[in-house]
Amino acid sequence: MLKIKQLIAQNIQKGILAINPAAELGVDELAGMLEYPPDAGMGDLALPCFKLSKTLRRAPVMIAQALAEGMDCACVESAQAVNGYLNIRLSPAYLTEHVLAQVLEKKEKYGAPTIGQGKKVVLDYSSPNVAKPFHIGHLGTTVIGHSLKKMHEFAGYECYGINYLGDWGTQFGKLILAYRTWGSKQMVVQGGIDTLVELYVKINNAITAEKEEGKTELADAARAEFHKMEMGDEENLALWKWFIQISLEEYEKTYAQLGITFDSYLGESFYTDKMPAQVQKLRDAGLLKLDDGASIVDLDEYGMPPCLILKRDGSTLYPTRDIAAAVYRKENLHFDKCIYVTSTQQILHFKQWFKVVELMGYDWYDQLVHIPYGTVSIGGAKLATRTGNVVLLRDLFGAAIEKVTEIMEEKNPEMKGRSDVAEAVGVGAIVFYYLTNNRIKDIDFNMDDALSFDGNTGPYVQYTYARSCSVLEKAGEMTGTDFVITAPEEQALLKVLATYEEKVLMALRDYEPSVITRFILDVAVAFNRFYHNCRILSESDERIKQTRIALTLATKHVLGSAFEMICLKKTEKI
Predict the structure, then answer these.
(1) What is the pLDDT of residues 56-83, one digit of tens each?
(2) What does the DSSP 8-state code read for residue 381?
(3) CB 125 within 8 A of CB 161
(4) Interstrand relation of 85-90 and 45-48 (parallel, antiparallel or unpaired)
(5) Mean pLDDT for the chain?
(6) How far are the Cα atoms of 193, 441, 533 from residue 372, in angstroms, in the given order?
(7) What is the 3-state secondary structure (H, E, C) of 177-191?
């Protein structure tokens, strides 16, 4: 549709110059003014001519009439002036010749922008705290982050995905203390990450109870265990590495279900020896100030609280590690953009250390991008591993898979590979439910809504994909290339497919996967209407039949491509 808009804008530009030769309106500017009417009866595209009144010094009604009379464009079937709007209907023949032909030629590469060619993007996402299982709160950073990675790859960027593990900090002192107090190797081997969580919750509860009594023995002991780690204690480091390995084995199960892989698992611990150089650079630049014993960067003139760099005891904090990590990534990965996907609760944190990077004189500070997303709650209750108030992602996925399995056993008990399909659809239901929402919105997760198989859901769009595959399997090899559009449902489907590149660019511009999920729903609705109202394999006219088979194949290509961008697996049978 972008090319179509450009062609129409070129024609409109000629019409504008005929009205006023001195008018300076570029083709790109005019193309950006073209809108999609709220009602298909108004046309396929519309130009609100009141936007041109000041430049052309004419009434919108007169401008629209003049442009309609002068419209001469191969992609336009008709142009009509209506109340100051130029309403445009696209040519079915043009859509068939250009859009349909392009989808069939490029297949799942159709609609791919080229804006990323020669550029590199680093994405920091998922990044769970080690020794804690995935819960529903981790879903956002994981699927939004990977979706953004797939979008950038589709647009030609070289992408590098980093799982910046939370694998360092005082929580490991707590866990080691809990393990030595209440745990054993056999317990952890048998229970895995669940046992680690139980121990972590137990030590936190004990520390909290102790604090209420005015005591600090356990808290002090936990800090001492972590300090031993920092000093290189072999026993503590061996336990720490073991806990990490147990965690990664658990995480990989979830990533496999989502079809997610990473290029790096370098966590916070990797940067412990890289922070001193950045702290020294801050000192040399005169940016560090002492505040009650702590080292800070004063950001008052930028409307922010101070950024804490070192605690009173000289230990580092999150901003220190993040700055060191960013410098390392720039020097070693040479990114053009580094994207961080975390919750909205960390917006201030990223603003602060991004500003510190700028003040340090790093000229690439503006290549750092924070992508926040809303929080997830269950029944309005926030989730926290330290209290045990969590809904584990594996349990959520398991419930969805179980429900899909029951439905499949009832409707298609003879289907081969049923367990794989049930997993793809069950996990897809959760992911699609999440990504249909605007990423910045908070979500109060509702299990019944997420697992619904009616309406605008993941199972609905995956079933649509499977339906297109079924038609194509029965059709055999497509033999025709001389296509003709004879039904409004065919043209409506083509018009939706034509907007793909435009939607991808919008999603990239706004870092918004929901643009893609909504596009997928538009395609599914248009295809299902076409499927129900137009004969495909039973059509007697061979030219029309081949056109409809081609439209089905085009739908499969575009849906398959879009599925890839939102961690949704392609299901050829359901």
Answers:
(1) 888 999 999 999 998 989 999 999 999 9
(2) B
(3) yes
(4) antiparallel
(5) 91
(6) 28, 10, 42
(7) HHHHHHCCHHHHHHH
Degrees, nearest 5: CA angle 465-471-477: 115
- Whether 122 and 329 have beta carbons less than 8 Å apart is answered as yes
Going 452 to 455 to 458 to 459, the CA torsion angle's sign is positive
Which one-letter amino acid corresponds to residue 167? D
Q: What is the pLDDT of residues 323-362, one digit of tens each?
A: 999 999 999 999 999 999 999 999 999 999 999 999 999 9
Nearest to 8 by CA among 96, 68, 98, 62: 68
The pair of structure tokens assigned to 244 is: 């990490």
Radius of gyration (C-alpha) of the chain in whole angstroms:
28
Is the alpha carbon torsion for 511, 514, 518, 519 positive or negative?
A: positive
Q: Residue written as tokens 């360092």?
A: 168
Token reading at 382:
């926030």
Is 516:147 a contact under the CB 8 Å cutoff? yes
Residue 460's pLDDT band, with cuts at 50, 70 and 90, is very high
- Residue 20 neighbours by CB distance under 10 Å: 15
Amino acid, single-letter form, for residue 275: M
State how far the Cα of 176 lies from the Cα of 87, in Å rounded to an integer.
69
Q: Give strand ranges (E) for 111-236.
A: 120-124, 158-162
CA angle 124, 129, 130 (to 5 degrees): 115
385 has pLDDT over 50: no
- Quick check: 184 and 242 in contact, CB under 8 A? no
Q: Write the single-letter amino acid at 113.
A: P
**CA distance linking residue 304 with residue 316, whole number of Å:** 20
Q: How do residues 386-408 score in pLDDT, each as one tens digit?
A: 445 567 888 888 888 988 888 88
Please count the other Cβ atoms lying within 10 Å of the Cβ belonging to residue 285: 12
CA dihedral 507, 510, 515, 516 (to 10 degrees): 30
Q: Can you tell me which residue has the tokens 């780690």?
A: 229
* 349 neighbors 308 (Cβ within 8 angstroms): no
- Give me 530's structure tokens: 């076409």
Contacts of 310 (CB under 8 A, 6+ apart): 279, 294, 295, 316, 317, 320
Quote the pLDDT of residue 113.
95
Q: Could you count the other beta carbons within 10 Å of the beta carbon of residue 17? A: 13
Q: Using the predicted structure, report yes or no on whether residue 382 has a pLDDT greater than 90.
A: no
Residue 548 is encoded by which pair of tokens? Answer: 């409809």
Closest CA to 124 of 272, 269, 322: 322
Q: Which long-range contacts (CB under 8 A, 24 or more apart) does 305-312 make?
A: 305/348, 305/352, 307/352, 307/353, 307/355, 307/356, 309/279, 309/282, 309/356, 310/279
